[in-house]
Description:
- This protein is an alpha/beta fold.
- The chain folds into 3 domains: about 80 residues, Orthogonal Bundle (Arc Repressor Mutant, subunit A); about 90 residues, Periplasmic binding protein-like II (D-Maltodextrin-Binding Protein, domain 2); about 100 residues, 3-Layer(aba) Sandwich (D-Maltodextrin-Binding Protein, domain 2), CATH 3.40.190.290.
- It is built from 11 helices and 12 strands.
- The strands form 3 sheets. Strands 3, 4, 5, 6, 7, 10, 11 and 12 form an 8-stranded mixed sheet that branches. It has a two-stranded antiparallel ribbon with strand order 1-2. Strands 8-9 form a two-stranded parallel sheet.
- Strand 3, helix 5 and strand 4 form a beta-alpha-beta unit.
- The radius of gyration is 28 Å and the shape is elongated.
Amino acid sequence: MDLHLVTYFVAVVDHGGITRAAQSLYISQPSLSxxxxxxxxxxxxxxxxxxxxxxxxxxAGRKLDDAARxxxxxxxxAKRKVDSVRELQAGRVDVVTYAAFSIDPLVxxxxxxxxxxxxxxxxxxxxxxxxxxxxxxxxxxxxxxxxDSSAEHATFSAIPMSEQExxxxxxxxxxxxxxxxxxxxxxxxxxxxxxxxxQHTAALFADLIDDDARNIxxxxxxxxxxxxxxxxxxxxxxxxxxxxxxxxxxxxQLALDPPLTRPWGLVLRSGLPSPAALAFxxxxxxxxxxxxxxxxxxxx
Length: 300
């Protein structure tokens, strides 16, 4: 249904007839009459009883009147929101990610975003994998995804950012005898507490996992639970160095040989991002040490 037809319909209701409604809309009476007939034809109902000098709504017309006013009110609210967000005076950006990036880099990006744009809010959605990120974007539940930039991103626009250095954080008793830079193969005999459910992450950790994943003693998707288990000596885990520094200060950090890194970036649906999303992208670029020049998206 065209929005202008909804506007015309409400005007006729409010003015009680075609003539006054046409005057208020600055259109001709025949044009307005034709518009109402077009609306009735598209809906397959009669909206007005045309007996007497004043048009009266039919039952179908009364139902449309309620819906039409809600539509116009929603459109007006949306216009006001767009205007305020365009000036970065209000609004919200919806971001989706999964455990691998829920602390690093997301926390620092959000902190920087709020420092730069204190009138904008952030809503963070959690999912379990890169596929979950794309699903949230596809459904419209989020506008930006933080994702492993080597993961399949289908037809979405992508902005590469930086990469995480991953280290093994191990209780001292498990790290005893291991060098600070340890061959990946040596970790295959170390009990691990990791999230092994995401196939992409599992593939990244393949060199650290024994045959049949026998050294994964706890498969857990909850970061806070993993950190607690490591602190209590249940096993070691693999985390970004930033996370190890902040959350596992009591564990020993073991760098891997060869080094293990995970690239990350942002993904968005095609089209022009909202002003709030552009502000978030700007904060992500600043966090990654990239230039603040105009943002260009490309496919990886």
